[in-house]
Amino acid sequence: MKILKTAVFLGLFLMSGFAGATALSSYSFKDKAEEQAFRELTAKIRCLVCQNQSLADSDADLASDLRREIYALWKEQKSEDEILDFLVSRYGDFVLYDPPFKPSTYILWFGPFFLLIIGGYVLSRALKSKTKDKEVELTEEDQQRLKALLEDDNDNRETTK
Amino acid sequence: MIPEIGHFALVLAMCLAIAQAIFPLVGTMNNTPSWAGLARPLAWGQALFLTIAFGALTYAFLVDDFSVRYVAANSNTLLPTVYKISAVWGAHEGSLLLWAFFLGIWSAAIAILSKSLTQEVVSRVLAVMGMINAGFVSFMLFTSNPFERLFRIPAEGRDLNPLLQDVGLALHPPTLYLGYVGFSVAFGFAIAALIGGRLDASWARWSRPWTTAAWVWLTLGITIGSWWAYYELGWGGWWFWDPVENASFMPWIAGTALMHSLAVTEKRGAFRSWTLMLAILAFSLCLLGTFLVRSGVLTSVHAFAADPARGIFILIFLLIVIGGSLALYAWRAPSIFSGGRFDLVSRESFLLGNNLLLTVFTFLVLFGTLAPLVYDALEWGKISVGFPWFNKMFLMVTPFLAVLIGFGPLMRWKRTDPAWLMKKLRIAMIISVIIGLIAFIPSISKGSLLVPLGMFLVAWVITSHITAIIDRLKHKQGISHFFADIAGKGRSYYGMVLAHLGVAMFILGATMVSHHGVDKDLRMSPGESAEISAYRFQFNGVVRTPGPNYTANQGKFTIFLDDKEVAVLEPQKRTYFAQGRPMTEAAIDWGLTRDLYVSLGEDLGDGDWSMRLYYKPFVRWIWLGGLAMALGGVLCISDRRYRTKKQKNQQLAQSDAANTLATENS
Q1: Nearest alpha carbon to residue B386 among B175, B237, B273
Q2: CA nearest A107 in B: which residue?
Q3: For B456-511, what is each residue's pLDDT tens digit?
Q4: B534 touches chain A (CB under 8 A)
Q5: Distance (Å) from the C-alpha of residue B523 to the closest C-alpha of chain A?
Q6: ipTM strictly over 0.90?
Q7: What's the whole-model pTM score?
Q8: With contact defined as beta carbons under 8 Å apart, do B50 and B134 qualify?
Q9: Are A94 and B383 within 8 A, CB to CB?
Q10: CA–CA separation, A62 vs A11, rounded Å?
Q11: Contacts of residue B342 in chain A, CB cutoff 8 Å?
Q12: Which of these CATH numbers, 1.10.8.640, 3.40.50.620, 1.10.10.10, 3.30.1490.20, describes A2-100?
C-alpha cells in the first residue's frame, strides 16, 4: 500500500515537474551575481519528488516551497554550506546531486581512481609484453604459403591498406 | 481479431526463435548440413511473424482499438495519426515488441547479406541471435504481453504521455533500439567465434561493418535523445547524466572501444580476446540499458520489487546471457592481448590506450549509475550521484582521449618513429597551444580553465587531422587528388576523419554553451523587454490557441539585435484534454552560432507571466558533432573492401589463417 501511495505521489509530481520554466522571478536579488549564485545553489539540490530534476529546474509545488525556504535562509545571510547542511540534516544525502565526501561514500570517490590505476596497470603490462615480444619468425613452409596467397590478392591488400 | 493474429504471430515467432537457437548450432557441431542450413529460413520466418505482430499492434493503434489494454493506456481518439504510430513503442510492452521486431529484421539482414560467409559462421551467428530473441519474445509473452485484452472496453483511451507527443521522441527509441539490437550482431559474431574456436582476423572483418552500423544507429539515437531533451523538457539542458541517458551512453562508449579494437584485430590480428570481451561487454550493456529503463528499477528499487515476475525474468535472462558468454569466454578465449608485437609508439599501442580509457570510462558511468541503487538495496542510505560527479569523471578521462585522437591518424602500424611523428605534428601542436593560450583572455575563458582546455583540444583534433590528410595525399598522387581519394579507396579513412572531427565539433559546442550560455528567470508584463547578451527579447503577451488534443497559452516574443528584428518566438504552455497536465513547449530560434530559447512559466495574473530566456551559443554543434560521427560511420561502412566477392573473402580468410598460424608459432 505504501508503495502504491508513493508511486501515485511520485507520478503526480513527476508530471508537474516537467512543466518547465520556473519563477526565480518572484525573488529579489541585489544583483545578477547574487541571482546566479542562488541559481547555482539550487541547481545542486535535488527536487525530492521529481524523477531527476534539480530544484532550480523543477516546477513541482514541493520544489517551490523548498526554494522559498532556501531563499529565506539565503536572506538571513546563511552561507551556502550552512544551507546545504540544513537540507542534508532534514532530507539526507539524497538531496545533494554531488555525493558528499565521507566514509560511506569513499567508494564513490576512490573507486574511480582505483579503476584508473587498474586500467593503467593493464595498459603498462600489455605494452611491456607486446614491445618485448620477439618478431615472428616464419618457417620456410609458411613463407611459401604466404607468398602464394599474397600474389593472389594483391589488389585486395591494396584497398585494406 | 487482428490483435489475436498479432498475439499468435508472436507465439510462432517465439517457437521459431527457439528452433533457431537450437538446430543451426547443433547442426554445425555434429556436421548435419541440413540442420545448419535451417538458420536462414528460420530467420526469415521469425522476421515475418514479428513483422506481422508489430503490424497488428500498429493497426490496433490506428483504429483506436481500446479493447487492447496497451492501446487504451497509451492512445486516444484525438491523438494525431503520426503519434498513434509512435505510441506503439511509447511504453514498456510495445518497446519490447519493437526490440524483438528489430532483432528479427537484423537477423533477416544477416541472412541476406552474408552470402560471402561460410554456412558455419552464419548458422552460429543466427543461432545466438535466436537465443536472444527467444528470451525477449518469451519475456513479452509471459510478463508483458502487448496484445492483452480489456474486458470492459473503455470508450476513450488514456492518451500518450504528452512528453512523448513529439517528433524527437517518435524517432529516438527506434534509432536507439536499432543500435542496441545491432550490437547483438557483433555479440553473435563473437560468440560464434568462441564456439568455433576460430579466432583469426576474418571474424573481425565480418563483424566490423555490422558493429559500425550498430554504432551509427546508437550515435543517432543518443543525439536525437539529447536534442529532444533540449527542446522538449523546457530547461534548456542537453545532457543531465540521468540514469536513463547513461543506460544508452554506456553501450555507446563500449561500442566505440569495440570499433577501434576491431580495427586492430582485423588489420594486425592483435587484441583478439580483448575485442571479443568488448563485444560481449557492449551487448551486455545494451541489455542492461534496456532493462534498467524498462523495469522501473531506476525510479525506485521498490518499483522493481513490486512486479517480481518481470524483475526475476530480467535478472535470470541477464544472468544467462552475460554469465553464459563470460563463462564461454573464460573457457575458450586465448590470453587477453595475444597477437603480433608492436612498439611503444605505434598505432596499436595508441589504440590500446584509447580502449583502456574508454573501458575505464564505461565502468565509471556504470559505477555512478548503479551506486544509488546499490546503496538503497543494501540499506546504506539513499544517495544521489548526479551531474557534478559525472562531469568530474568525464573531465578526468575525455581530455586524454581527445589528445590521443590527434595522434591516431598519423600513427603507423607496428612502429612509428617518434621523431618523425613530432616533426609532422609540430605545426598542429603550436597552433593548438596558441589557440588555447588565446582562450585564456578573460572575456573568452569566463574564468574557467576548461575553456582554454576545450579550445586547445578542438584546435588539436582539427589541425592534426588536416596534417594527417596532407601527409596521406603526399604519399598518394598529391593534394589535388583529395576528392578522388574520398570517392575511391579512402572512403573509410575519411569516415574516420569525419567522425573524429565530430568529436571536435562536440567539444566546441559543449565548451561554449557551458561557459558562455546565459539564462534568466523573469517576470514580464506585455510590452516589456529584457536584454540577454546583446539580444533584446520583447514580450507581446499571451493568447489562447487551440490544438488538436490540447489547448495552449501561446506567448509571443519579438527579438531584436541592434534594433533589427531577428526572430519571432511563440512558446506555449499546453494543457492536454485527456490528462490535464500543463506542458511547456519552448520556442527556439536556432542558428549555427547561437540559439535563442524561450520557455513559458506560469500565469502570474494581469497578463504577467514568469518565463525563462536563454542564449545558447554554439549549442547546435553538440548535435552536429553527433551527426558527423554517424556520417563518418556510414562512410566507413560504404568502403569497398567490405563488398569483396566470396572467393576473395575466402582467400583472405586463408591468408589470415596463415597469419594466425605464424603468430601462434612464435
Answers
A1: B237
A2: B371
A3: 999 999 999 999 988 888 876 666 777 777 777 788 899 999 999 999 999 999 99
A4: no
A5: 5
A6: no
A7: 0.87
A8: no
A9: yes
A10: 14
A11: 130-131
A12: 1.10.8.640
